[in-house]
Design brief:
The chain has 94 residues and is mainly alpha-helical. Helix content is 61%, strand content 4%. It is built from 3 helices and 2 strands.
Length: 94
């Protein structure tokens, strides 16, 4: 297998993992009750959580495989952890 083929396979597998992670995060945020109003996560503030999530997911889907947008995925993962750490998280309908 040539170096270029290995790189292409690696990028494809990483892209598939990112897609799966994105779908998992979408399910997570769909299944919880999102707070209304401003959310202060300590490391950044969000004025409208639902709009923020929609923008992040759209940006990541449109730029699949582009490393420039990896921090957006990381922010979603950090946000997920924030909600998991909250004792009053309310699960929605599955």
């Amino acid at each position: 297998m040539s170096s270029l083929t290995r790189i292409a396979v690696f990028i494809y597998l990483r892209s598939m993992n990112d897609k799966e992670e994105l779908q998992r995060l979408k399910r997570f945020f769909h299944d919880i009750k999102l707070p209304e109003g401003r959310l202060d996560l300590g490391f950044f503030q969000i004025n409208d959580v639902e709009k923020y999530l929609d923008a992040c997911f759209t940006r990541l889907e449109r730029n699949d495989g582009n490393d420039w947008f990896a921090p957006n995925l990381k922010k979603l993962q950090d946000m997920e952890q924030y909600f998991l750490d909250q004792p009053n998280i309310i699960k929605g309908m599955p």
